[in-house]
Prior knowledge:
The chain has helices spanning 46-53, 76-86, 102-107, 118-131, 147-159, 177-194, 205-208, 229-237, 286-291, 295-304, and strands spanning 4-15, 18-30, 35-39, 61-66, 69-70, 87-90, 165-169, 197-201, 213-218, 221-226, 249-253, 256-260, 267-269, 281-283. The chain is an alpha/beta fold and 305 residues long.
Amino acid sequence: MPLIELDDIHKIYQLGQTEVAALCGVSLTVDGAEFVAVMGPSGSGKSTLMNTLGCLDRPTRGTYSLDGEEVSKMSANGRADLRNRKIGFVFQNFNLLARTSALENVELPLLYSRHVSPRQRRKRAKELLERVGLGDRMDHHPGQLSGGQQQRVAIARALVNEPAILMADEPTGNLDSRTSSEVMRLLCKLNDEGGITLVIVTHEQVVARHAKRILILRDGLVECDTSDFSAALHALHGPETVGYGGSPGACRLGGEVCLWGAFRGSQVGHSDRRKPRSSLVVDLSQQLFDLLTTPFAKAFGDRQR
Ligand SMILES: Nc1ncnc2c1ncn2[C@@H]1O[C@H](COP(=O)(O)OP(=O)(O)O)[C@@H](O)[C@H]1O
Ligand SMILES: [Mg+2]
């Protein structure tokens, strides 16, 4: 049984007399231990989808079952209860309490739990801070921590209820690239070793690249659902702008080969997410180059000659 099952989800916001259709029939399933990145242009419905998945909001139409429980018919209280049991949230701006230590911030979600004693609460929070590499920062307040450390505290807090799913809307949006990759490494580890399901909204390719599956939303619909990073970028930007961080690369799209990047020397990387990036470096001879006849390759070919 899938962990998440959305069937024909519509979300219509009523703005005075006008209706805004934010989701227009989204159907998808997510299994336990998947790592899904959600991408798409601004206004495509990413946050609405996350709010729906996170049981924060109720769809206008369609059904949503989370771990076998039907969410769309639940009351607000029912949804809150389910959310607390199943989902941890990570936000772009960390959302930590300022005058509160890292340890207390992580304990917070358990504060009102009848099932967890204060001693267990503290023990669990400590363990989680150690797990995110902050064992030596437990007494620091958020203001005494770097952005990346604050986000790691927030991740520990999201995990304290032992949720099945971790949801994050732009978790690295406020971080520099080095710190961002540190946070992504942690999330990948939680997914790989802890088996936690990750659903992450991001507009950053370097973040989405870590995911095992990418959904591209457009106009409230899932336009592309793929485990092929290059195909996802293609759906997001169109073939002309497929690229990644300026590194040279190539990908196969519908039988055609696309190239991008600066072709210095005679080598070009082949970017297939299922193979390590460096394992398939081909010699870009003139002959091979002539074989690659997509408009994109031609554009680069013209520049090379
Ligand atoms: N509370 C709301 N009331 C009315 N319209 C909304 C509301 N929230 C989002 N929308 C509209 O729904 C569409 C999708 O928004 P959103 O899910 O925030 O997109 P994204 O996160 O991809 O930028 C947009 O057209 C947005 O203007
Ligand atoms: Mg958004």
